[in-house]
Amino acid sequence: MKIAILSRNPQLYSTRRLVEAAEKHGHEAHVINHLLCNIEIEQKGPSLFYGADYLEGFDAVIPRVGASVTFYGTAVVRQFEMMNVFSVNSSRGIVHSRDKLRCLQVLSKEGIGLPKTVFTNYSRNVEHVVSSAGGAPVVLKLLEGTQGLGVVLAENQNAAQSVLEAFNGLKARVIVQEFIKEAGGADIRAFVVDGEVVGAMKRQGKEGEFRSNLHRGGTATILQLTEEEKRTAIKAAEAVGLGVAGVDLLQSSRGPLVLEVNSSPGLEGIERATGVDIAGKIIAFIEKSVTR
Ligand SMILES: Nc1ncnc2c1ncn2[C@@H]1O[C@H](COP(=O)(O)OP(=O)(O)OP(=O)(O)O)[C@@H](O)[C@H]1O
Ligand SMILES: [Mg+2]
Ligand SMILES: [Mg+2]
């Protein structure tokens, strides 16, 4: 098969591993920088060109679209879809996953466990907003935050109200979320491919830090998920509409709670922590899905 890996950087671990796995399975892999693709739309049908060449004869695409280029990246994925090329993640699923709020809205509809979350149009009644989220301590998150930046723990009602007022004053969009204390500064990354958890790791924040992000100094170890955790992760990936997803869960006293679902989850941390050939699982998913 001819497989396109949409990535801006062929040197990245995830990109390199996908190329390696595709070739190992006997396929032809092309790393394509989606930002350099041009989209052509006309009556005779959709097409894509890349430099001087048309992109033709592809059987599948693996989007690795960075959060900062979601708009153009998903337009390119959609064009491949219109050309009947199978994508491991649909353009719609990627768009869903990119917005913390939209993602939680979709998960809630499916009855998936999540921390109670409140979002308002800069409501001035901050006391009510904080108490709706269960009262302090609460977590405030900037909608456009990433890698743990813009995620704040407000320990008491006063702190929560003043932080929320400050964000509101700056017209910064935030969600207010129940704080899951018993998670103990750790979260779980469950890697889902084709409706199955293929690997999972626990990420523990550094001493005194409630955020477990590896970018914030957290550490990762392999973890065996419970059946309930597996079910939750699989259901979350399905609800958002992703064939390949990194589902982040908190372990709480009322079971697993989903924080977010990522559509271009990194392979390095999870392959190193688990020793599983995750790139190979993604290629196997394509082999199963594409009938030539
Ligand atoms: N409601 C919560 N209760 C307890 N801990 C939380 C809660 N929300 C977030 N955390 C901790 O903070 C970390 C960062 O939060 P979150 O994943 O929501 O934002 P982010 O990492 O900035 O987003 P992204 O992963 O998209 O970059 C989580 O991994 C988790 O360890
Ligand atoms: Mg996160
Ligand atoms: Mg994320």
Automatic annotation (TrEMBL):
Presence of the UniProt keyword Magnesium in the record: yes
InterPro entries per record: ATP-grasp (IPR011761), ATP-grasp_RimK-type (IPR013651), ATP_grasp_subdomain_1 (IPR013815), Rimk_N (IPR041107), Rp_bS6_RimK/Lys_biosynth_LsyX (IPR004666)
Q: Which GO terms describe its biological process?
A: SOS response; translation
Q: Where is the signal peptide?
A: none
- The portions of this protein that span the membrane are none
Gene Ontology cellular-component annotations:
cytoplasm
GO terms (molecular function) for this protein are: ATP binding; metal ion binding; ribosomal S6-glutamic acid ligase activity
PANTHER family in the record, alphabetically?
RIBOSOMAL PROTEIN BS6--L-GLUTAMATE LIGASE (PTHR21621:SF7), RIBOSOMAL PROTEIN S6 MODIFICATION PROTEIN (PTHR21621)
- NCBIfam families the record matches: PRK10446.1 (NF007764), rimK_fam (TIGR00768)
Q: What is this protein called?
A: SSU ribosomal protein S6P modification protein
